[in-house]
Specification:
This protein is α+β, with helices and mostly antiparallel strands. The protein is built from eight helices and ten strands. The chain has two domains: about 5-100, Nuclear Transport Factor 2, Chain: A, CATH 3.10.450.40; about 105-215, no CATH class.
Length: about 220
């Protein structure tokens, strides 16, 4: 299969992971800010936004972007796009990097399962003070929670063992816009939370160690 050629705002990227790293580094560099059409990086974020096919419906309706803190982790990197009426709507720049809509049933189920174990992630955060690999102290939330055994493996094993009905529809969290379970699927949610707690091993990694593990 021919590899996709990625060019945004005149910048060429060989792989999606290169685009991801460039975007992440740019967001960290800019920090908390609003990006209007006079900003030197506006065109990059505009073209990135329209990599996601669904966003084409907003053509000629984008006025700017805003970088804020993630409402859960408080890390800088949560983004909004601003329409011509100054309404702000959250969007996933990660999905835009991927260049696909991604909101398939599997994606929604996986996302809801990830959201359901946020308390376990937070517990790991508060119970650890340094990077599990290099020992760098945790400072101002500049660290990540990582699965030693990949989340996708735990997710697949649980669903292979689940004998009841799977959730069929999902809703979105009113603040984070993450997919979450309906109340009628509470049994599935609780069972997954328990399975994840039993099978997973979470660790705190500094940004560099997490990045090294991700791109290894």
């Amino acid at each position: 299969m021919k590899r996709e050629k990625i060019t945004l705002a005149g910048i060429d990227f060989k792989y999606k992971k290169d685009l991801y790293k460039y975007t992440q580094d740019l967001i960290n560099k800019k920090g908390l800010c609003t990006i209007g059409n006079t900003d030197s990086d506006f065109n990059f974020f505009l073209e990135l936004f329209f990599r996601k096919p669904y966003n084409s419906m907003y053509l000629n309706n984008v006025k700017g972007f805003k970088i804020t803190r993630n409402p859960i982790t408080q890390q800088i990197g949560h983004m909004f796009w601003i329409n011509i009426y100054d309404k702000e709507e959250t969007f996933s720049w990660n999905k835009c990097v991927d260049g696909k809509d991604g909101d398939t049933y599997h994606y929604k189920l996986t996302s809801a399962c990830r959201e359901s174990i946020n308390n376990q992630r937070e517990e790991c955060w508060y119970n650890n003070t340094e990077c599990n690999k290099c020992g760098e102290p945790k400072i101002n939330r500049q660290a990540d929670i990582d699965h030693v055994l990949d989340f996708s493996i735990i997710f697949q094993e649980f669903n292979d063992s689940w004998k009841d009905n799977n959730p069929l529809k999902f809703k979105k969290h009113p603040i984070t816009c993450q997919y979450i379970f309906h109340e009628e699927d509470e049994q599935y949610k609780l069972a997954f939370q328990e399975y994840h707690k039993e099978k997973s091993q979470l660790q705190l990694l500094c940004k560099n160690c997490h990045k090294e593990k991700t791109y290894k």
